[in-house]
What does this fold into?
Amino acid sequence: MGVTNGIELSPNSATLHVGESKTPSAPARLLAYRLPGERLVERRILKTFDHFDLDGMRTDIDGKLFAARPDAGTVAVFAPDGTPLPEIPLLKKGPTNLAFGGADGKTVFVTQSEDDHGFIEAFSVDRPGREFCMLQPSGSS
It folds into this structure.
């Protein structure tokens, strides 16, 4: 593995997603590992990004993966099977990390580092985040 940046579990804890940062000699890549117990096996390259990098990532409760793409100014989105979906354009070009929140867990908050004056922007999605649902008291969400 190269320089790692961004890591997230699938909702069923069967897959570990790892972002590998772009270096002068290699493009950024999104990797997926199957997790039988505590071992990483069957590495798959879900996507290679020739331009721009990857950073923080999160999944929704169905396993859709959202990954910040600094300098691209987008959030990359992948179906639970790893199929790339359309990227979500952002207002600025410095997304570094993201989290699901809001009253129903369907708001994605994105940290931005653009112009040395960081801020947070948000967009809505149709399903709540995995971590948001894990933090809810039993019987709610």
